[in-house]
Amino acid sequence: MQAKAVVTMHTIGEINRFMADAGVMKRSLISANHCFAFERDFVGTWRCIPLCVRRKLDLMGLKLKLSHWLELSQTQRQELVDWSDAPDALEQCRETLRSLTRSMADGMAKDLAPAVDTPWQQVHAMPVEVADAATARGVRLTAAQWANLSELDRFCLCKLVRPGHDHHNLAAAFSEVLG
């Protein structure tokens, strides 16, 4: 008599959460729904827009305000976190968000130019702002390390070093991304 294998299917988001809960901080090559450890205080409740969703919004060319995000249901927010970042999926997501926000208090989410050749998409050119922020915090970040980061990791660092941004997560981001 042969034993039958039992296969349990999990979403990438569930796997990321299992790994994080187990203390495993392996960097995923899949950036579509990865949430950083420093975002944990709002993961699940989704009271803030996580960086994986912000990256998708930039890629699809849509400005979704925090007020829009908070008007979405918990299930809708989770679906956006889990949504693929493949080009055809992003176009579908963009149309879905435009439809969902059309009747919201702040009106429909605004179109922007989709992100193309932005600093976080440049594998071989680390932005000066990121290099300066790393140096200021005593973090060694080489061009080779930058080139080996996932696009989401580069997006994260570029967003967190922007002038006027609250930099309280930047040290944690450097630590997690460069691990």
Tell me what you see in this structure.
The structure is a single chain. The protein has about 180 residues and is mostly helical. It has two domains: about 10-110, no CATH class; about 120-179, no CATH class. It contains nine helices and two strands. The protein has helices spanning about 10-20, 50-60, 65-70, 75-80, 85-100, 130-135, 145-150, 150-160, 170-179; strands spanning about 60-65, 110. The chain has a two-stranded antiparallel ribbon. Helix 8 (about 150-160) packs antiparallel against helix 9 (about 170-179). The longest helix is centred in the middle third of the chain and has 15 residues, at about 85-100. The protein is globular, with a radius of gyration of 18 Å. It starts with 11 loop residues before the first helix and ends with a helix. Mean pLDDT is about 85; it is low at about 1-30.
SSE arrangement:
Blueprint: H1 12-21, H2 51-60, E1 62-63, H3 66-71, H4 74-82, H5 87-101, E2 110-111, H6 128-136, H7 143-148, H8 151-160, H9 170-178
Antiparallel strand pairs: 1-2
The spatial strand order of the largest sheet comes to: 1-2
Q: Got a strand count?
A: 2
Counting DSSP H or I runs of 4 or more residues, the number of helices is: 9
**CA-atom Rg in angstroms:** 18 Å
- Given the helix and strand composition, which structural class is it? mainly alpha
Order of helices and strands: HHEHHHEHHHH
Please indicate the percent range of residues in DSSP E strands (runs of 2 or more). Answer: under 5%
> Tell me, what's the shape?
globular
Q: Report low-confidence residues grouped into runs of 5 or more.
A: 1-29
* Termini Cα gap: 47 Å
- How is the main sheet built? 2 strands, antiparallel
Integer average pLDDT: 86
Q: Which percent bin holds the helix content?
A: 40-55%
Q: What is the count of distinct domains?
A: 2
